[in-house]
Amino acid sequence: MNRKELVRRIANVMRENDIRKPVSSQKQVFHISDDEGNSKDFVVKKTGKGVLFTYDDVEAVMDTCLAVIGDSLKRGESVSIRGFGTLSLNYRKPRVNKHPVTHEEVEVSGRYVPKFESGKDLKMCAKMYELSLEERLANYESSESDDEEGDE
Predict the structure, then answer these.
(1) What is the distance between the alpha carbons of residues 82 and 61, in angstroms, rounded to a whole number?
(2) Which residues partner with 12 through β-bridges?
(3) Is 15 helix (H, G, I), strand (E, B) or coil?
(4) How many CB atoms lie within 10 A of CB 77?
(5) How many angstroms separate the most distant Cα atoms in the chain?
(6) pLDDT tens profile 16-75
């Protein structure tokens, strides 16, 4: 899934769950007077309305989140999102490797690389996917064996 598809899926889920952004409404003042010269001002504020988030809204929020995560990693801080995972930096020691084409020994300097450790919820999603694959494979094998019996 690419970035555009992710934004669209998030926006669609927000629409399905009726998640709305609040929109401020202006107050209206009504002046009421009678024939005797009595007057009264009534201030009416419309009830708060919510508007659905657009793709641009979702994209702006995603961009901001990614920028904050990037800034945190630039400062060496780790970012932990409960259930999702932890992003941090990992130091790789300097080492000597072989060049894949020329097979010469090349020195690789030490550097920091991003590291992601998945959280409990992501691990559970992977497990559920694995179980569904096993179920599909079992159904596929049973349907093949039924086809072979029918051919005889």
Answers:
(1) 19
(2) none
(3) helix
(4) 13
(5) 103
(6) 888 888 777 777 778 788 777 788 877 777 666 677 888 898 999 999 999 999 999 999
DSSP letters, 103-148, are --EEEE--EEEEEEEE-HHHHHHHHHHHHHHHHHHHHHHHHHHHHH
Percent of the chain with pLDDT over 70: 92
Beta bridge partners of 23: 49
3-state DSSP call for residue 65? helix
Residue 64 token pair: 């901001």
Q: Tell me if 119 sits within 8 A of 85, measured CB to CB.
A: yes
pLDDT higher than 60, residue 142: yes
Distances in Å between the Cα of 35 and the Cα atoms of 32, 38, 39, 87, 95 are 10, 7, 9, 72, 95
